[in-house]
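Bench notes, bay 3.
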Amino acid sequence: MNNPETPLITRERLAADLEKIGLRRGGLALVHSSLKSLGRVDGGPDAVIDALHDVLGPAGLLVFPSFQKGGEHKLLREGVVFDVRSTPTGQGLLPETFRRRPGAIRSLSPTHCLAARGPGADEFLAGHEKCEVSVGHGTPFEKIVERGGQILLLGVTHACNTMLHYVENTSGAPTVSCELFTPTVIDAAGQAHTVPTYPHMPGLRRRYERIEQELTAAGIQANRRVGLAEARLIDARAMARHIGARVRADPLYLIDVFNPAPTTPGAA
């Protein structure tokens, strides 16, 4: 629970902090977030989303992860049905509030759905259901890289940076399962789609936080406080090139081979 003596963080302060860290007006931004890290926000999650839109402006495209909670293999093996109209996101209160906003739409991915709001959101999310690797070539994640988008880690670390899955999956890391699943996704019109999906391998513990100092030193990442949160703003294209080269040289660069993840049911 927030301390009532903690000063309120206003929408205006959040917008000013986002401008200072370098969020670009008219740009494309994927946000991973922790609402509580920001402090006691006047207006709650809606004020944070409003501040992001304030800075991006009317031409900007705001994107949040919108996939459901749970290990990929467990969900797929149990025959998950993902309904973009009603399936809640398991990524926190900010993404859940965002996906419910008028004008926000979600991509048709059973495991790595993204929600977007702004001009061109339909085109940006289109075709995700045709990509057998949900964080790979042809996906909205790739479009963020190709369009020079930004990744904002708002009170979270690179452990939450889903774009690093894209870097691995497209640079030769042994991260994708050879088992194909055929889950169902229900679109906004209520139509069912079968979406062939190769999930990530279970049991791989990542070392994503090792790139922190490397990106900062290379000028690819900016760090400062937004509200009370430690925030990181990353150039997606530059990160993909820089870390992609690392992974191509060493496919296990982002994988901790000495400390595999627990083999619990549903681990992914």
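Next record in the batch:
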Amino acid sequence: MKSTLKVGKIEAKPGTVEYGFMDAGEMQDGSTAKIPVALINGSQHGDILYLQSVSDGNELNGVAVVHHILNTIKPDELKGALIIIPIVNVFAFFSKQTYNPADNKKMNRCFPGDNKGTSSQRISHKIFHQAVLQAKYCIDLH
């Protein structure tokens, strides 16, 4: 029997698509910054693909690719699963810049991260350990 796919508190049973958010720290106003997550868990056994975009806050083409995938792939026709994070560097995305303004780092250079490090390193650590390590294949869209 195929198992439930889980990233943080988000769970997708076989043959389903689920959306949710991972906490990424605090914004300047004290509100919680959230990383969007989409899980497509196919109805059949297979490998897991991890897909991310916007590791640089101003690289927006990947978001369009992710939306196309989410609108095209049907979980009942999928072997395996997809873990998708459409906006990895939320702080840079909201600031409309390449680097995370909290620590002036490029997110894709922070993996696998550090749970006690800078903002980007902590986010990378969380994503790496909760999502990336489940996958056989990883794609970072630039």
